[in-house]
Amino acid sequence: MSKTGTTRHALRWAWGWRMVDEISAEQRFQARIQDEQIALLFRHIPLAQATNLLVATALVWFLWHVIPHGILIAWWIANCLVIGLRFGLTVSYRRRADDSRVAWHALMTVGAVFSGVTWGSAGVLFFVPDSASTLTFLTIILAGMSAGSIASLSSWPPAQYSYTVLTMMPIALRYLLEGGDLWSLGLMCLFYLANVLLFSRQLSRALIDSMRLRLEKQKLVQQLREEMSASEAARARAEEANLAKSKFLAAASHDLRQPLQAMNLFIEALRNERDPQRAGPVWVHLSASAQALEGLLNELLDISRLEAGLLDPQLRIVSLQEVFDALERELEPLAEEKGIELGFVATRLKVASDRNMLSRILRNIISNAIRYTEQGAVLVGCRRKDGRVAIAICDTGPGIEPEFHQAIFREFYQLRNPERDRRKGLGLGLAIVDGLCRILDHPLELKSRVGHGSTFLVHVPIAAGEVAHLEEIEASVSASLHGYAILVVDDEPAIRQAMAKVLGGWGCQVLAAESAQDALSQLATSGFLPDAIIADYRLREGRSGTEAIADIRRALGRAVPAAILTGDTAPARLREASASGLMLLHKPVQPARLRSVLSVWRLDLSASVSQVQ
Questions:
Q1: Beta strands in 473-610 (DSSP E)
Q2: Domain for residue 601, yes or no?
Q3: Which domain holds residue 205?
Q4: For residue 440, which of 568, 349, 312 has the smallest C-alpha distance?
Q5: CATH code at 415?
Q6: Tens-digit pLDDT profile for residues 537-562
Q7: pLDDT digits (tens, 9 = 90+) for 29-79
Q8: Inter-residue contact 239 to 68 (CB < 8 Å)
């Protein structure tokens, strides 16, 4: 597709979603109007039904000596049943107003139909042609009931139209069928009915417009409140950030001045010291001050890099046991110096993370725990939890009050160190931990009880498959790759050529293909039997390297060792590769690392052949 065609397609796609959003917004607005209509309908029902009962009773009383009592009583009971039904609907609505608005509209319309049929039947049952007073009173009652429905039912036109037509049409038709002088009264009833319907339609439109304006006004008021709230929150955040910056600069200035002051004093002492032997300890203290200053500057640099977003995590499959072993060797002397126990629970779990960043996170938390624990122990372990590995660092220190659980992750914030004793740290370690956890998407959790210690939990995506410690294997100890057959699948010609040249230089036999179909075609015609497969993750036509490897393995009938080569570092990619049992190599892959991977595979192949022999 041309660039212009792609742009047009993107514009159509974006416009389509915009139309969907606008339609959805209009539908939501219409739904709110319908909710208002329903509420208004049920708000009028109690008064309207009380009026119905009163008028029905008055009509029966007026006709008591004209119409047979049985007919009057039956009609009055039917009217009362309809009134009770509509009262019941009102009670039910107030209890379950959140139910489908379509159901409430339908029920209201059905109630209006029943009421209209009841009153309309009066125009037939109580029609006495020879009694002008009876007809006059009956016509006035029915006309009044029709007109009265405008106020109570016009917010929902289907109910109002149904009620009015069913109430007035029977007596109008009865007048027309009677003929004679009464025929003209029938026409007048029809004319009156038309006027009531027209007026009801106009009032209904006015009510809906009024509801629309009121809802739009409420929406604007709500938006204004939200904007004011957001503005106030932004102002508060700005003030908090400004205050934090001032505290940060003040603390940084103090902590920078401390080693500088010590260095100045030691330099002055050296200037006055003539004896080289006595100058030795001064040099040691001067070096320690310089190291402290360097450490502070390095941590300040780390904070700056975190804020600037300059840290780029290189996600790999990491063995937690290897990380634990390295940290234990590094931090055990610090724990022994404090006289506390440092323990690591052995594990076989592997995670998807940046090894250096993860080590820095755990190192900062563990060293902080050792620093603030006066007696007892610091224990490090891990367990599976919701598809992740929860790495726990537990200590028997003084604990942290709940109100400080957020504050301790701010720069230069320290508890129980108002004198800024550098032996208790600089107050940057946990700030760096928080920043690195955000970059790596490793949720950080703190649980603590004052007087009982604290537990920091770092939640890291779990991984399976080959551990990425192969990069530590040097090419000098790699097995010979002479004659090792490798299939390369990549849709970029330049990468295929470069890979073939590098692998060929190591003595490998190389077959390069741009897709799984191309690879299968070349394998079928050349008789090439690959010992290993290296495939790019993103291939053409929406295919992935994992799919290509699966197709090739299926065609060969064996699980050929394979690796995915990709520029992606997202945890999702790592999980996909891990789920398939494939090695994941990140671009730009170092030749030494690639050779290390191939060497291990070659050694495994050689060992398998030896066992068979």
A1: 485-489, 509-513, 532-536, 562-566, 583-586
A2: yes
A3: 26-223
A4: 312
A5: 3.30.565.10
A6: 888 877 888 889 999 999 998 888 88
A7: 666 667 777 776 777 777 878 888 888 898 889 888 888 988 989 999 998
A8: no
